[in-house]
Amino acid sequence: PVPKWALITIAVAVVVLLLLFLICIIRCCCRKKKPKKKERVSLQTVGNSTMANLVPWSPVPILLHLVTLCIAPFKLKVGVKQAAELKAMDSGGTSDPYVIVYLTSDMKKRYETKVYRKTLNPVFNEYFTFQVPQAEVPDSTLVMQIFDFNRFAKHDIIGEVRLPLATVNLQHVIEQWSDLVAARKEEQLGEICFSLRYVPSTSKLTVLILEAKKLKRMDSHGLSDPFVKVHLILNRKKWKKKKTSVKKNTLSPYFNEAFVFEVPFNQIQNVDVVISVWDHDKVTKNEPIGKLFLGCRATGKQLRHWSDMLSNPRRPLAQWHSLQPPDVVDKALGLKSHLKLPLPHR
Ligand SMILES: [Ca+2]
Ligand SMILES: [Ca+2]
After folding, report:
1. How many whole angstroms from 168 Cα to the centroid of ligand 2?
2. Structure pTM?
3. Ligand 1 mean position, distance from CA 114 (Å)
4. pLDDT, tens digit, for every residue of 243-272?
């Protein structure tokens, strides 16, 4: 017979050994999960950060760090970590870099890092938090612009990184190097307000063009002469079209013109409504100012407006929308190039 104290000692020893074994396993696992730093990752691979491809050395990269803090409301923490081998903008062969960070869904909210004097390899390690309505996340792009500070002259832009949030897997922490590219000018094309109403029993789709504001100025001596075209696209082909009257010399026209289209209930899912604002010109051809489309293929605010219309039959629903560059919208719609040509003015 084994004494009781011996049994207890053996039991304690076994438990201690098991605990040690468990600690070892946990340590090994954690070590593997630590993200590798300083990998140079191309933007295309962002969608799947675990499968990031290594790309050849690039001359001016910047290291970013993204963390989704909260899903609803969507909160994103953006870390500007460091930049390497920046272009020298000052005569001494150095730059004084700082970074401006914003999301295109709210361009008024901009953050700035401190200025780092006389360096081409600044280490910023600064973090900024953004909050975005959930519906606007797919359409939003994170923009980081690096500038060279100058005390007595205009600050020069060194380059920028644009990261459409729709291309990023926001459920993972992302830490990656991105290449800087030449900065693009942010263009405000304007906003348009219209209401949508669908009555399934009568197959009537009503688009009421209400007004527009902050439209881009298109005429060199004057403002713009806006009018609105409403196109219906069925199965990627232009189907029906209507247009408003022209409002002369204004950037905030008021239309209040309604268009009724007959769309059978079994086709409503296959229809895109394209709304474009044009500048009328007497001498030269009319020019598009901006565009947007609604339908089951749309995203963000436009998709929400469309689905609200479908789930509230017979009720007109009005909403403001931002105009997008016409070529971007045409690309999203996958229209053939010949359909992009402006129609002759009557
Ligand atoms: Ca400078
Ligand atoms: Ca004009």
Report:
1. 40
2. 0.53
3. 13
4. 999 999 999 999 999 999 999 999 998 899
